[in-house]
Amino acid sequence: ATASAGGVRDMELEGFCRSPLALLVRPDEGNLLRFLPGVSKSERLALIEEALTGGCADPNYPRWYWSSPGAHACFEGDVEALELLHRFGCNLEQKLEWLLQPQPSFTFVHAAAFNGNRNVLEYLKPRVRPSAFQAVDGDGSNALHTLMESSRELRTAELLLELGLDGYGKNGRGRSALSMAIEALPELAARLLAAKARFEYRWWGNDLYWYSFDGVLLPLSAPSVPITFCPMAAGPSRGAPCSQQLTIEQLVVKYNRKELLSAPLLRSLVQRKWRLWGSTIFWRRTAQFVLVFGAALVNSLDLASDDILFLSSSAVLLASWPYFCSVEVAEIRREGTRAHFSSLWNVLDFWHLAGVLALPALHFLPGSAILGTDAGGPSGAYAVLQAVPGLLQITLALRALQYASLARTLGPLLVTVGGMLEDITRFGGVFTFVLFGFANAFFVLFSLSGQDVEYSRILKEQLLWLLNTVDRELFDGLVGQQHFVGDALFWGYIVLSYFVLLNLLIAVFNSTFEKIQRQAINEWLFLRMVTMLNFEAQTTSRLPLEAYYADLSRSSNSRLVELGLGSEEMSSSSRRRAD
Fold it and tell me: What does the angle CA 106 – CA 107 – CA 113 come to, to the nearest 5 degrees?
């Protein structure tokens, strides 16, 4: 057998190539061209049987190297070849060296799962001991880990779960089947999460659930830190340091898996965390924001510098500025500058920090002396600074929408508005081609008729036509055939833009609205989850979080009563499974 001395891997010197028998089992492995183009499968199987019958080939050779005939049959999904090898003595529980793993623990079950060959697993099921399915390879990965890192075939993964494989334990790379499924196979993640919650019965009008948080949040990495996982893109190989450790909640947010919030377990976690910890932080932050919002409004008014309202509002703005600035700086350090400012909300926050600090100073800037105004009116710089207070009020109101979005009734509606804005952006890309195409045609037509019509005026008129403001004065100078061409272009533009494209945009809006409303609760819970993860990263006092996670540890693997979250939505599917 292989050995590992001093941490150095010693490989068996069996020849790192395939035996003739392995070539017959899987002739095309690693090749784009067929190596036996004129040989049918039945003829190939006959050749394998003849080699085994004559005793010139060993179905178990090489003993340790992964490129054995049986392993290749499992990789290929060739049950007929595997059955033939087994009939002539192939050990279906053979363990092999796989790549640079520290010991030969890679099994035929791993090989079948690697390419998602469910048929091979069904063949192996009655012929190997159950422990062969539960075995882990040299990286601590069971067959489900192997499947998730390679084929990600859902039906094969479901079979492995039915056979009792652990979907929650971490392998040597710091990943579980659940964490990888959240990244790449959300259907499997939904099944794994559903298995961690079970509807029991109704108790005094409330739903009673059994929950287990093991492998989802527990065991804790620290008193206030749940179990973390290494994303597949963060740690490419065994032993390599993981560049990023994420919790299950962070994985759900990172990969935008809103559909997983239909799982009763995640819904319960979000609501429990909000009730025991998040709501307190939220209302404190809301009160601080409202105070700054009001102070900014008062400070924007035309008040004397010694007015009590100006002085008090300035004191509020200057006193709150260091706190909000420290939060912003901490987020930039944690996320990186580029990632941080990729969010519109963070850009608004940065603008608010600058604007709030500038508001009191604007009262002390004499325009004529510093900004260069003259008797004719304010300069460009002065006009820009005059617009700062009003613009700040608009952006603060937009920022307030994020606080309002955590309300169950407003959250999905605001997400719908955001989705419609994205639809408008995509629609604008299509409409731009139509707009400028017809504008060019009109511009050429007017040039040929001798009229001097500015290109910008043509664009303006085209946009006004869409708003039912039709002024055909542009066409007054066209005569004869040119007037006919102008009419044809006008009606062609109206039909294409107004009746086709605008109605298409309305249909897209309806589709976006219906899609978000179908998962309105998920959208709302996702917003809460994102907000609480931000709170968790920014908080300096960990004691409330420690109390929350301690409560989760005590209540895991026990019955809990669900309060306050549309119990009919949570439990309908679970009740059907229980029945």
Answer: 100
